[in-house]
Amino acid sequence: MKFKNLKILLISILFVNLSFFVNAKPVPESFADLAEKLTPSVVYISTTQTVVTNVNPFPFEFPPGSPFEDMFKEFGTPQTRKASALGSGFIIDSKGIVITNNHVIKGAEDILVRVEGDKEYKAKVLGADPLSDIAVLKIESKEKLVSVKFGDSDKARIGDWVIAIGNPFGLGGTVTSGIISARNRDIGMSRYEDFIQTDASINVGNSGGPLFDMNGDVIGINTAILGQAGSIGIGFAIPSNSAKKVIEQLIEFGETKRGWLGVRIQVVTKEIADVEKLDKPRGALVASVAENSPSDKAGIKAGDIILEFNGVLINEMKELPKIVAQTEVGKTVNVKVWRNQKEISKKIKLGRLETSEDFKVKEKKDPKTTEIESLKINVRLIEAKDIEERNLPKNTKGLVITEIANDSPINYLKAGNIIVEAQKKTIKTIGDLEIAVKQALNSEEKTLLIAIYNNQNQRRYIGVKLN
């Protein structure tokens, strides 16, 4: 009986293992058929622009690194010359719509697109978007051009095979293969990052080229490499699902129309989550609200934590800008926020994101200070001239930090930062801050939640662990 049961068990395990291998995708024997089919849709882009350089007026050269090298640069004669650059792209419409990176064609006076190795066309820019690093070009051809279509990048999994075709170092028609190494990569290039990482060889000149899946669909636009040289097995591509809406808008309007909430946000740290009695760090903390913005009109306040936007849970702060940007301008959405240790809902009609929401400020320092021993900082009361010079809201109250000790619990802040809130209460006097510190020390979390304006005039919340 025991032998029979063991036999059944072994047979079951065998069937499970066979099932696993049947469902697993096989390693491709060759990429030749796929490469042959897709290569005609990949184009090679060359650009020229005029640049101004200083020409050395002396009949000799200083060695690199010499202290005289920079000293005599100013005596150089300005001279214009033509500079060229190379990149890649791909055709998505047989009528001549070409996709590439914005940085490939930025500042270009002339753009040439080479198709199938030897046919050259002058291209015009239909639209370009620096925030996503996507550009759409148009070429005119009497012949029907070979095009490719976008795939669903959300279905691409880590470990899936991919191929990249492009123009690295001017070597057109170069095909490389690899796998998807990671998804949702953020490498600090722009505010809307969600890169696919691949170990397919990506080099200088691959920018703007396609990353294909094994169905021959474009699931990414090759955009960045780690390091200057590339070819080290770490390349990054814009996911097709992120790119498609941008491309549609660039074709239709020549520009993008992104949704806008009108808030500055920051990461919800464990300390902030503890103070706010949130179950875990999640959502996006509203650091400040732009005056007369959609959020301002809807009643969103600094200190709110956005937990859900239009039915989508916000697990990490970086998710919110992407979701908002992809939402239609003028659409009214439901937003769930955490305020005063409970969840509330707000209806917000989205505005349109302009090119810049930031504003410049001037630094100001004042020698009149008072020491806050518990925080090991020196501060002074904010004055009317601070508010005027730094373009702060007229009713701003707070304390300007003038000095911070190296062993201060907030030694990562800078002189000139302004503390405007502590424990969600406005700081009007030095005594207000001292009371808030004492309350934090007596609390179970021993965490002080402060709101500051940094030296770029950006409002931020910070959770400070006190000993």
UniProtKB/TrEMBL annotation:
Transmembrane segments: none annotated. Its EC number is 3.4.21.107. This is Probable periplasmic serine endoprotease DegP-like. GO terms for molecular function: serine-type endopeptidase activity. NCBIfam families: degP_htrA_DO. GO terms for biological process: proteolysis. Belongs to the peptidase S1C family. Its main location: periplasm. PANTHER family: PERIPLASMIC SERINE ENDOPROTEASE DEGP-LIKE-RELATED, SERINE PROTEASE FAMILY S1C HTRA-RELATED.
